[in-house]
Design brief:
Blueprint (H helix, E strand, L loop, with lengths): L1 H14 L17 H11 L1 H22 L4 E12 L5 E3 L2 E3 L10 E16 L3 H67 L7 H36 L23 H11 L1 H22 L4 E12 L17 E11 L6 H67 L5 H36 L2 H14 L2
Antiparallel strand pairs: 1-4, 2-3, 4-5, 5-6
Helix pairs in contact: 2-4, 2-10, 3-4, 4-5, 4-7, 4-9, 6-8, 7-8, 8-9
């Protein structure tokens, strides 16, 4: 009895494919397009590099803000200095024991000079640059969104390409099955000496088998490339595996009107946010350059601390000893830089950059509607192609199946079988390709209109909530 139980267990393992097969094997997870896009955005070095530019722009703004606060500077020096004693009165005359014309020994000295400045009014030098820096941050943030758009459109290209290649491999298997049925019928007809088949028909079957082998190789290699591309774009390691859905999504209802998509692009495209804030920043930098022609008002505390052991300190209020001093007092002042052409050139440079950006904006206003129109046209074209080709390939399959049955009953010629096989293979391939082109065109339209920004937010939230 025990031997019988062991034998049944062994048979069960064999029928299940062993520990590594069937229910015992853990199938790699199926990842859909939103999940892969969320993974790619999280991994993308390009997106991370763009975010670093936002950080850099933020610190540039913080640098400008720092000029609003007091600035402290100090200079310390030390060295040797001649000894000196205070003058004294002898016989009614002022006598200098250590005149400057003779050296009476040397000693060390140390001195610290310091100034604390607080700007009061700069005529727009700081305020314009601060506001320009804040607009520059928004420019860089929009650049991050634009970089995400590039990643967004790369994933569908590889994702739908992988599904297309997998469906192509399935189509090859099906074509081999149909061709095997045709070969069987040709060989049987030749064996019985039927006039419905000839040796040339067998050559034709061989020809089709060679063509199928070519398509099989293309589908296999295409699947490998697309799979590797998805792993690379999402940052998966060599041991990480996944699978994708079995079929390409069917085409949905055609999108809204072209004008609606163009208006959406003007509202959502990050490039327009970049231009808007970039123009504002350039205008402010022009004003800041103009403000450089005016003075800066400030408050300051200036002071010094110096000492030299070998020199006696003088109490004469009119005598100042560089090596023995200690003082600190507040002052108010004005700083005004004059030059002969430097400031004017900087103003003109800022104006030139502003003018350049205005021309870029005009180019974008002209070019983006064309880009949207092209993407919109591709969606419409491939939608109509997919709907029409689905009808063609379904009826071609019916033609092939009917021809197989009719040939067995002697109601049709072998040529009808070959034609049905050819048309079914061609129309099914064209249909699958049109599905790929349609779905990828939808992704390109989302990028062209900026609609991808909302989808990215949705995909990221779903990925964050998935355990």
């Amino acid at each position: 009895m025990q031997c019988l139980m062991i034998a049944l267990m062994v048979l069960g393992l064999i029928s299940a494919g062993g520990p590594g097969g069937g229910a015992w094997a853990q199938e790699p997870p199926e990842l859909n397009l939103p999940q892969l896009i969320a993974m790619a955005l999280k991994f993308s070095p390009e997106v991370k590099a763009s975010k670093s530019e936002v950080w850099f722009a933020t610190e540039q703004r913080n640098e400008v803000k720092g000029y609003y606060y007091p600035q402290f500077e100090a200079v310390g020096i030390g060295g040797v200095v001649p000894n000196a004693r205070q003058p004294r009165v002898e016989n009614g005359s002022l006598v200098y024991p250590d005149p400057a014309t003779r050296l009476h020994g040397v000693n060390i000295f140390g001195r610290l000079d310091f100034n604390l400045f607080q700007p009061l009014y700069t005529f727009g030098k700081l305020s314009n640059r601060k506001e320009a820096a804040e607009n520059n941050i928004k420019v860089k943030e929009a650049a991050v969104d634009a970089k995400k758009g590039e990643v967004f459109v790369r994933i569908p290209e590889a994702y739908y390409g992988l599904i297309l290649a997998n469906q192509g491999k399935d189509a090859v298997k099906e074509a081999k099955t149909y061709l095997s049925d045709i070969r069987h019928r040709v060989e049987r007809a030749l064996q019985i000496g039927s006039r419905t088949a000839s040796e040339s028909d067998l050559y034709r079957v061989n020809m089709y088998e060679g063509a199928i082998g070519k398509f099989a190789a293309e589908a296999e290699e295409g699947a490998k490339v697309a799979y590797a591309a998805l792993k690379g774009l999402t940052g998966m390691g060599p041991g990480e595996e996944f699978r994708v859905p079995l079929e390409l999504p069917a085409p949905a209802k055609p999108p809204e009107t072209l004008d609606r998509h163009i208006n959406q692009a003007f509202d959502l495209r990050p490039e327009f946010a970049q231009l808007k804030h970039g123009l504002k920043a350039r205008e402010l930098l022009v004003e800041a350059a103009k403000a450089d022609r005016y003075p800066t008002l400030f408050l300051a505390v200036t002071g010094a601390l110096a000492g030299a052991p070998g020199r006696e300190q003088s109490r004469d209020p009119y005598a100042y000893d560089l090596f023995n001093a200690h003082y600190a007092f507040p002052v108010a002042g004005v700083k005004w830089n004059w030059d002969f052409g430097i400031t004017k050139a900087k103003i003109n440079q800022a104006r030139a950059e502003l003018q350049q950006l205005k021309h870029v904006q005009e180019t974008a206003v002209m070019g983006i509607p064309i880009e949207v129109a092209q993407a919109y046209s591709k969606v419409q074209e491939n939608y109509k192609k997919a709907i029409s080709l689905e009808k063609s390939y379904v009826n071609a399959r019916r033609w092939l199946i009917t021809s197989l049955s009719n040939y067995d009953m002697g109601l049709t010629k072998l040529e009808d079988l070959f034609q049905g096989f050819e048309k079914y293979g061609a129309f099914r391939g064209d249909y699958l390709l049109s599905l790929y082109q349609y779905n990828f065109a939808v992704a390109q339209l989302d990028k062209a209109t900026g609609a991808y920004r909302g989808k990215i937010g949705e995909y990221t939230e779903k990925a964050a909530s998935t355990p």
